[in-house]
Amino acid sequence: MTKESPVLATRLASVPNVGAPRRQRLSPAVRASLGRILTLGWPIIALLLLWELVAVLNGYTDLLLPRPLSVAAHIFNKPQTFAEPTLITLALAVPGTVLGLGVGSGLAILVWYSSILDGLITPTTSVLQAIPVVAMLPVIGRLVGYNEITIIVIVMLLSFFPTFVLVLGRLRQANGSSEDVFRVFGASRRSTLFRLLLPQAVPGLLAAIRMTAPFSIGAVILAQYLLSIGGLGQLITDSIVRSDTVTVWAIACITSVVSIIVFALTKRLEDHVSVRFK
Amino acid sequence: MRPQTKKIVLGIIGALTLILVSEVVGRLGLAGKAWPAPIDAVWSVLGSKLSSSLLFRALGATLASAGTGLLIGSFVGTAVGFLGFLLPPLRAGLDQTASILNTIPLVALAPLLIALVGPQGMSVLTAALGSGFAMFVATASGLVAVSATHSDLFRVSGASRLQHIIRLSLPSAVPSLLGGLTLAGSGAVLGAVLGEWFGAPTGLGVLMISSMQNFQVKLLFVVALTAALVSLIAFYAMVAIQKMVGKRFV
Amino acid sequence: MSATGISLDRVEKTFPLKKRNMYTALKDVTLEVGQGEFLALLGPSGCGKSTILRMIAGLERPSAGRLAVNGREPQELVNEHRLGVAFQDHALLPWLTVYQNVSLPYQLAKRPVDSARIEELLELVGLADFRDAHPRQLSGGMRQRASIARSLILKPDVLLLDEPFGALDAVTRRRMNLELARIWDEERTTTVLVTHDVEEAVFLAQRVVVLAANPGRVRHEEVLSFDTVRTEGLERTAEFHHVVDRLTRMLDAS
Q1: Between chains, do B157 and C57 touch, taking CB under 8 Å as contact?
Q2: Same domain, B133 and B71
């Protein structure tokens, strides 16, 4: 069998030169991607079918349980209903996350710089890290007010803790031979930080982005829902009050898709950029 | 001073400073009326029979949901992870779906979930989801974390697939499972509190919302503190178990 | 071809690489290991010596040629639990004690545990006092001794050693070689040792097969018949040094 494989390999290699018909060359690719969709997405397909089946078998109207197609049609027919709230939600998620990443990294660098600050802050922070930040929403709402700043603060806190822990972890990890090399060359603390440690910390920061950015959208919507302040969250509250079930389901689908896209993008960013710094 | 002692002393000073600053801010009213002095708040809530019984009843409800959710979630998450291990064709799909489900915000799923279990069951379900995902990931990655030489050894020794699973894959998965439990514990508490925001009758989450709306800042503060403490205790209890059991398996 | 021992007949092993290329790890390897013989496979890294061992263990299959152990497929011996193996990584299970680790092959073979045999082997490898210790409490050398005890526990037809002392320091390694020679003298199992250490190969084996790389092939065979028994004194003889020098030059040239 194996004796044939070089022959088989040459035969396969010669296929493009022969100039096979386009249709035949395409179909294995199509089949391969169909196979990929099936192996990766079978539970999603199963869920959609189950959803449809439950709705049809029980004879539910759209008021009780809208069917997947009517939800899709609803989004397609009234894109303007959803576009603005989605943009508002995203517009709050981005600055919150960026602030959290900035403050977390900044504090991590300060802690790396000063051992006293390290001793004072790190133990408390690592304890506080286990506190469910999102559950503290009512406290922050009461404290800051029922407004967008509350939302930004909660998103900031959400990304702050992982950023601090991950970036500090990477900064400390460098404490090894490469830092010794810098010391032997007589590099200043400052240039060690900029030339060695900050690049070293990039994967930590990227991991923090991947871990927090997709969830910041959910946090924003939850805050908007709880405090009734605009965006997709308020639209959920309003639609529930109006018994507009289709809209509620449409929001659920939009939010899911946006979160998954953010997850996929941040994951890709991490995979592509991190390798260069490791 | 030894570095270890210095570390502990600095850590305690840091924590005390945080408490002291929040106390001073509260006493002087620097952050407005919504920031109570923590010690005063704890004292007055626990001192009042009405609010303390309210707090403990809510705590009991949340603990019950979180505990039930943790049990269900851990069981289902572990079982699904194990299923993916036994039936490799399903694995890629399960991994993908689990990470997608975990990414989808709870609030987006809320209408569907409420339709499934009603508002009362929400907190158990969200607690189960919170812990179940952690346990699924821990199981799925733990079962394949078998070292290549161990695997070779079992193959050369003529071990059956069942022996391979029971004597090698399962024990190899223990550290990962214990790591998953530390996340599952606090995940269940968070899930229970968030689930209570969707129409549960009692619980810390409900009490938080009602005291927020009624401007009972002291009660709100103490309830939040309780939720945080429960989450911390759940996390560190699991870490302690991990340290006790886990070192035998690595 | 003898019905006992190990025989490789024009064995070839190729691995697929990216873009449909094939990498030839071994080409035209013909080898015989007699019953009760201690053979060492010596070669630079990448010469495929571990691949030969893995094929004898049934972990890989030859791409071409014939490979038989006692005249049969390696997998048959594996299924009958008649192979013993020790790797460079000791591969002890961290959650079991030394005693439990050594008795693991009995459980995998579904045979009653012969505790007298375990005690005897633990005595032989000098771990009798550590039977209830866990691997992490042992030194690197002790772990390898436990691993070798485990490989011998079922009195295997064939013992395969894949650089078992490769991760140890030079001093411990020498001591372990002395002990392995003593243990082998008692058990007399058909043994294949893979190593890149010339002295280790010459000290332990009755025959050394030197391999060359790219593609892996047999370069030289050296039958060792020292007058001296294989104890400490052997390493100081001129004859020993002569052989080691010659094989080392051969490795350097390849």
Answers
A1: no
A2: yes
